């Protein structure tokens, strides 16, 4: 598999020759801007996810929807979307008195960029393969703005010579987790079709607020920073939960491949070293009461599994899959609340 990727990667374009044509801010409607603006509380889970997440979505040519028409449709839909997702027009701020981050819902605007590439989509090759050059299709920093006034959300529409286009989206992770980002895209699709949002968002992050006083009732090894693998006998692998059904199987496959790739030939001691995998678990349905499915914040906690590399090599695959599933099942309402409170006491 590695050789196949290396062979393909050598054929990938290293420069997509993208030129920015226009870059500006879009704002919520006047009605939304006139509402009283208050800082948005961010939970302890949100607090540790202050980094950008970037996705690129490719669309083949459609004579009825050329890139310039799509760009205008997206701009108008985003204005409507920010009436419900006002945090996307806000700015991340540090409260000096509490030391916590919050979102200043000040209507400062989201980023919107229009760009062109000198290539056709076909010239990019197989879009299934990751290509570092795809970073040219996403904008996370608007050069016209100072560093401390960058938007939490930015669109980039890049048109190709064939009439196709790429939609690059950059979001600060404090705005969405994977599930709420999918819900946002579903709502945006509804607005693009001149329909109301399919799932109105729940923006109340206090639903994951720490208890008063905080109570840590479980050991949280998954939240303790792992030491460097050069000084310990463990390594960590991160994965993202997409669907629980196939997720455990894929998780174990990735874990096993990663752990065994670090075993040197004929080095028996390497097989005795312990490997740790960390993976995200959606807690919306695990709390009591459950979080709304439309909760926009980060409602994920980290589960973990540990095993010697030898066990990953020799144990039945199904046994390891069961172990990974069991670790995820440990995350109950009390366990989740305890983890959130751990963040309150150690943050």
Automatic annotation (TrEMBL):
InterPro entries recorded for this chain? CAT-like_dom_sf (IPR023213), Plant_Fungal_Acyltransferase (IPR050317)
- One short Pfam name that applies is Transferase
Entry superkingdom: Eukaryota
Family of the protein in this entry: Belongs to the plant acyltransferase family.
Query: What name appears for this protein in its UniProt entry?
Result: Uncharacterized protein
């Amino acid at each position: 598999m590695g050789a196949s990727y290396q062979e393909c990667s050598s054929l990938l374009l290293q420069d997509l020759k993208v030129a920015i044509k226009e870059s500006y801010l879009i704002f919520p409607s006047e009605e939304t801007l006139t509402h009283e603006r208050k800082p948005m509380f961010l939970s302890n889970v949100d607090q540790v996810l202050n980094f950008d997440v970037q996705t690129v979505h490719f669309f083949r040519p459609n004579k009825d929807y050329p890139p310039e028409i799509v760009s205008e449709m997206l701009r108008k839909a985003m204005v409507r979307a920010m009436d419900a997702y006002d945090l996307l027009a806000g700015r991340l701020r540090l409260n000096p008195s509490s030391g916590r981050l919050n979102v200043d819902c000040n209507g400062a605007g989201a980023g919107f960029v229009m760009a062109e590439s000198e290539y056709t989509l076909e010239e990019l090759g197989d879009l299934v393969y990751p290509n570092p050059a795809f970073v040219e299709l996403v904008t996370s920093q608007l050069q016209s703005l100072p560093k401390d006034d960058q938007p939490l959300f930015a669109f980039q529409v890049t048109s190709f010579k064939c009439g196709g286009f790429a939609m690059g989206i950059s979001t600060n992770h404090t705005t969405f987790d994977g599930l709420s980002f999918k819900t946002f895209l579903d709502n945006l699709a509804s607005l693009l079709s001149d329909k109301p949002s399919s799932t109105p968002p729940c923006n109340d992050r206090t639903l994951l607020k720490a208890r008063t006083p905080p109570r840590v009732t479980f050991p949280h090894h998954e939240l303790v920073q792992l030491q460097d693998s050069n000084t310990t006998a463990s390594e960590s692998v991160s994965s993202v939960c997409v669907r629980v059904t196939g997720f455990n199987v894929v998780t174990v496959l990735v874990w096993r491949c990663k752990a065994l790739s670090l075993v040197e030939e004929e080095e028996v001691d390497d097989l005795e070293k312990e490997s740790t995998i960390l993976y995200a678990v959606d807690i919306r349905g695990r709390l009591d009461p459950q979080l709304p499915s439309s909760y926009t914040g980060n409602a994920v906690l980290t589960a973990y599994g540990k095993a010697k590399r030898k066990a990953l090599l020799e144990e039945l695959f199904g046994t390891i899959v069961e172990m990974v599933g069991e670790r995820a099942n440990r995350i109950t309402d009390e366990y989740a609340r305890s983890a959130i409170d751990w963040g309150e006491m150690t943050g």
